[in-house]
Write a structure and sequence with these properties.
Length: 331
């Protein structure tokens, strides 16, 4: 679509064809879609129109441009082709041994002992570090340092972070919350997306909830499952940072598969061997620095299936006893 300020001089029929999401706005104000531009249409509106809607030509045009700019921001967010973390220094002030490059559709794990600096790496990415953090790392997007124009063009929707510490404070039910989020992202099929998110969240959490369940009534696992599904289906963030979801009460394997299926860049700090082997690679953190990068090899991929079977049995046993059953030799 053209730059937002040029859009008001283009025929509305062309604008709606290229950007169907503006149709609702035009319909609300009863503006006819034809060969006239938005500017021409507004100039022809009668005095009664401005009285009825209690607005002005300047205000109406401003609202229309805000809508178009929001849509352009959404389109821009979908254009991250790579994320690169250039090496800085470790806690001893020594040069890090490697840099990290991640592309959409890939999972990279961050591994290392507790306190080694895994969360610091996630924070550097979240802040888009430019030698202005203790590690002196640089974070590049699409091969370049993101300037203020690039950051602002994403409108706060560049990076999503999922942690174990998530709580809702809104007095709102699940469906209303998701619908509000979907509409703020200018999604055409908002209600369908909301239904999809709720279904996926119920699948991930294992403990179902209804669309009219207040978000403050959700358990910790249900909350995280809802946020993962929301990030995958409604959220526009192309980069997802995850801090230890292994104990989050969700189906972690399905959660990762869901995020990767949306062609997002996924970086996850974890101690879980199943998640580590599900990833494409892992960066090893030592003394606060990136020590080395290991690509998951064929033997590890085969071993993953063994661990998956063990994990499946553990999940089955966990659900069995959680539901109050007694064991008499078989489940």
């Amino acid at each position: 679509m053209s730059a937002s300020h040029d859009i008001i001089d283009q025929p509305l029929s062309k604008v709606v064809t290229e950007c169907p999401m503006v149709s609702d706005f035009l319909q609300v104000y009863g503006l006819v879609v034809n060969g006239h531009s938005f500017r021409e249409t507004v100039a022809q509106l009668p005095v009664e129109f401005w009285t009825d809607f209690e607005t002005s030509a300047e205000e109406l045009t401003g609202q229309f441009l805000d809508l178009v700019e929001g849509i352009l921001e959404v389109e821009a967010v979908q254009q991250i082709h790579s994320l690169e973390v250039l090496s800085g220094q470790n806690k001893r002030g020594e040069q890090e041994a490697c840099s990290l490059l991640i592309k959409p559709g890939e999972i990279t794990c961050i591994v290392g002992p507790t306190g080694s600096g895994k969360s610091r790496l996630l924070a550097d990415i979240e802040w888009l570090a430019n030698e202005d953090t203790p590690t002196k790392r640089k974070v590049l997007l699409n091969g370049v340092l993101p300037d203020e124009n690039l950051k602002s063009s994403f409108g706060g929707k560049l990076i999503a972070q999922i942690t174990q510490n998530m709580n809702f404070v809104l007095d709102m039910d699940v469906q209303s919350f998701l619908l509000l989020h979907a509409q703020s992202r200018f999604l055409e099929n908002a209600e369908e997306k909301v239904a999809e998110v709720i279904a996926l969240a119920n699948e991930l959490s294992g403990e179902g909830f209804q669309p009219d369940t207040p978000v403050t009534f959700l358990s910790g696992g249900q909350s995280r499952a809802l946020m993962i599904a929301d990030v995958a289906c409604i959220g526009q963030a192309p980069i997802v940072l995850i801090d230890e979801i292994e104990n989050a009460g969700v189906d972690k394997r399905k959660a990762l598969e869901l995020l990767v299926s949306q062609e997002k860049i996924v970086l996850m700090a974890t101690h879980d061997p199943l998640l580590i082997l599900q990833a494409n690679r892992r960066v090893v953190i030592q003394n606060g620095g990136m020590h080395k990068i290991i690509t998951t090899n064929e033997q590890e991929k085969a071993y993953y299936h063994e661990l998956f079977e063990l994990d499946r049995k553990m999940q089955k046993a966990r659900n069995f006893f959680r539901l109050g059953n007694e064991y008499f030799g078989s489940f």
